[in-house]
UniProtKB/TrEMBL annotation, chain A:
<keyword id="KW-0046">Antibiotic resistance</keyword>
<dbReference type="Pfam" id="PF01061">
    <property type="entry name" value="ABC2_membrane"/>
</dbReference>
<comment type="similarity">
    <text>Belongs to the ABC-2 integral membrane protein family.</text>
</comment>
<keyword id="KW-0813">Transport</keyword>
<feature type="transmembrane region" description="Helical">
    <location>
        <begin position="83"/>
        <end position="103"/>
    </location>
</feature>
<dbReference type="InterPro" id="IPR000412">
    <property type="entry name" value="ABC_2_transport"/>
</dbReference>
<feature type="region of interest" description="Disordered">
    <location>
        <begin position="1"/>
        <end position="20"/>
    </location>
</feature>
<protein>
    <recommendedName>
        <fullName>Transport permease protein</fullName>
    </recommendedName>
</protein>
<keyword id="KW-0472">Membrane</keyword>
From TrEMBL, chain B:
<protein>
    <submittedName>
        <fullName>ATP-binding cassette domain-containing protein</fullName>
    </submittedName>
</protein>
<feature type="domain" description="ABC transporter">
    <location>
        <begin position="6"/>
        <end position="236"/>
    </location>
</feature>
<dbReference type="InterPro" id="IPR003593">
    <property type="entry name" value="AAA+_ATPase"/>
</dbReference>
<keyword id="KW-0067">ATP-binding</keyword>
<keyword id="KW-0813">Transport</keyword>
<keyword id="KW-0547">Nucleotide-binding</keyword>
<dbReference type="InterPro" id="IPR003439">
    <property type="entry name" value="ABC_transporter-like_ATP-bd"/>
</dbReference>
<dbReference type="InterPro" id="IPR050763">
    <property type="entry name" value="ABC_transporter_ATP-binding"/>
</dbReference>
<dbReference type="InterPro" id="IPR027417">
    <property type="entry name" value="P-loop_NTPase"/>
</dbReference>
């Protein structure tokens, strides 16, 4: 057997050798090419994206932070939610929820589409793009969308006077981490689905909605009976929200707990990302 | 002889215990146009995926452009153009954008991709449709766009999985014309098809596959010479009578094939067989003498017709 037949490098100047040279760019930049593609696709629903990014903060901050807050502050005073106005209390939670909402959009149906309904992932993989790069590219694109969405949300928080602390802008990064940490897990799960027989709707109803309600979002976790508080401890939204509160209005919690929030979200991100890459590699290799 | 661009040796692909490709060997020379022929489920698409370096072989050996797909998948794919059996154009993008985005995947600079895109839109006769949505294209247009997309990187090898299935005769001829031009430019073609005329038109050489194994290999004319007679007489007696009649005319021609709706008599001279039948006192409802085709080769080898 010649050297070629052992899978070793082909002789210089051969077609194989030229192929290796010409693939270097894609090996390095493939993830970015996929992200580019995602941005172009995003234009198809650019209106929805824009309206959500601008409309959501106005509606939620007004309804919860102004409407509901008037009631809460008038009846319970600031003691109810740790010594700040209800608006200041709820705004960081809404910010993190906005990140979760974008993640829930971007990491579900577009994944079903790519694998099944309009299998563009297979087309990418037939070009020199590797399965892991497809996942990376999607994460990059969603990162940008979440970041912009949260940036706009934060601007409205400032406008509503919902951020007492100067370190408040850090809450944006926390929210992005929250959205991605939860989102990549959701993406990995969606990638395992060969058919959507309502699983995604179930996830929305029985995972995302309860998580939004019971993660110390609208009331402190301590209000819940102990036997329900575990929902908060495993919820990425709770970890994100608490940390965002530390930055937005100086919620007092031990340092180790703040570190734990970051670690927890980082671990979710790492695990979900790796898992999604693995499933994708397996699924594209038919 | 130049180094072959595809070498498969005893190639095997199993799904659990089922071998979709069960030890096939073939070589394709640069610039050659090579066909995989076979009925549904024969293993054609599976073979295409193995060569396309997107599916890992279970056994045997495979080199594409001298490279092992297990180690150099992206590198091999950078030199391939792939037209899959089912179109997977991005329906969220416009026609032109589909080519632009795809070109980037090969690491090509934007300006070069844009130039190539315009050439290919002309080549595929889709210039007027550049800004259309993909879903607004007809089946034949989508197929042409898929082929255009496969050519964006100026591939050394073009893999075409049933490129013309589902197209009307005119659309097929347009596609054949495009493929001929590529062949003239020296592109290697590996294609699967159910159409014998397509195989005869496009393939320099082909293999007939059934149940994941190769039944025969050669140039179309050579296969016909080897596995069939020069002419075929087709006679119909009505489905009830075919079997009875077959018994009576046994021994006529070189070989007889009884199909549900007709009897095929293979012979060097179809007309003289027809005379013998009539002399025997039988009157077919219809009769037809034609040249042997790949369809007959296929029937001989697999006992089945190609399109079921
Ligand atoms: N991913 C898979 N998992 C399990 N079985 C598979 C898979 N892909 C193909 N097969 C099986 O392998 C066999 C060959 O399939 P393949 O798609 O290669 O056939 P084909 O020759 O292309 O047929 P057709 O003319 O219908 O396109 C079939 O029996 C098919 O069911
Ligand atoms: Mg097939």
């Amino acid at each position: 057997m010649t050297a070629e037949h052992t899978g070793a490098a082909p002789p210089p100047g051969s077609v194989g050798d030229r192929a290796i040279r010409s693939t270097r760019r894609t090996r390095r930049w493939g993830s970015w090419y996929v992200a580019e593609h995602r941005f172009l696709s995003l234009r198809a629903y650019a209106q929805t994206v824009t309206v959500t990014a601008i409309g959501n903060p106005i509606i939620y901050l007004y309804a919860m932070g102004v409407g509901l807050a008037t009631l809460v502050d008038a009846n319970l005073g600031t003691d109810a939610v740790g010594g700040v106005s209800y608006l200041a209390f709820v705004a960081p939670a809404l910010l993190c929820s906005a990140a979760i909402a974008v993640a829930s959009d971007e990491f579900t149906y577009p994944i079903m589409i790519g694998f099944k309904w309009n299998p563009v992932f297979f087309a990418m993989n037939a070009a020199p793009i590797q399965p892991g790069q497809i996942i990376n590219g999607i994460v990059i694109a969603v990162f940008v969308r979440i970041f912009v969405t949260c940036g706009i949300f934060y601007a409205f928080m400032l406008l509503f006077g919902a951020v007492p602390s100067a370190t408040g802008f850090l809450a944006v990064f926390v929210a992005v981490l929250t959205g991605l940490g939860f989102g990549v897990l959701l993406m990995a799960y969606t990638a395992t689905l060969t058919e959507d027989t309502g699983q995604l709707a179930m996830v929305m109803r029985f995972v995302i909605l309860p998580m939004t309600l019971f993660s110390g979002t609208f009331f402190p976790l301590a209000v819940l009976p102990v036997w329900l508080q575990w929902i908060g401890w495993i919820s990425p939204l709770w970890h994100g929200t608490e940390l965002a509160r530390v930055f937005a209005y100086g919620l007092s919690e031990p340092l180790w707990l703040s570190v734990l929030h970051v670690l927890y979200l980082a671990v979710l991100l790492a695990v979900g990302w790796a898992w999604a890459r693995r499933i994708t590699a397996r699924r594209l290799n038919k | 002889m130049p180094e072959p661009v595809i070498v498969a040796q005893n190639l095997v692909k199993k799904y659990q215990d089922f071998a979709a490709v069960d030890g096939i060997s073939f070589e394709v020379a640069p610039g050659e146009s090579f066909g995989l022929l076979g009925p549904n489920g024969a293993g054609k698409s599976t073979t295409m995926r193995l060569v396309g370096a997107v599916s890992t072989r279970t056994g045997g050996d495979l080199r594409v452009l001298g490279l092992d797909p297990n180690r150099y998948g992206p590198e091999i794919r950078s030199r391939l153009g792939v037209v899959p059996q089912a179109d997977n154009l991005d329906t969220e993008l416009r026609v032109r954008e589909n080519l632009l985005v795809y070109g980037r995947y090969f690491g090509l600079p934007r300006a070069q991709v844009a130039r190539r895109t315009d050439e290919l839109l002309a080549f595929a006769q889709l210039e007027d449709k550049a800004k259309s949505k993909v879903d607004a294209l007809s089946g034949g247009m989508k197929r042409r766009l898929t082929i255009a997309r496969a050519l964006i990187n100026d591939p050394s090898i073009l893999l075409l999985d049933e490129p013309t299935t589902g197209l009307d005769p005119q659309a097929r001829h347009i596609l054949w014309d495009r493929l001929f031009r590529l062949k003239e430019q020296g592109t290697t073609l590996l294609l699967t098809t159910h159409y014998m005329d397509e195989a005869e038109q496009l393939c320099d050489r082909l293999v007939v596959i059934d149940n994941g194994v190769i039944m025969a290999e050669g140039a179309p004319a050579q296969l016909i010479r080897t596995y069939s007679s020069r002419e075929v007489l087709e006679v119909r007696f009505g489905s009830d009578l075919n079997a009875d009649v077959a018994a009576q005319i046994a021994g006529m021609g070189d070989r007889i094939e009884v199909l549900p709706d007709r009897i095929l008599i293979y012979s060097e001279n179809g007309e003289s067989e027809l005379v013998r039948i009539v002399d025997a006192g039988l009157t077919p409802i219809t009769s037809l003498v034609r040249r042997s085709s790949l369809e007959d080769v296929f029937l001989r080898l697999t006992g089945r017709t190609l399109i079921e």
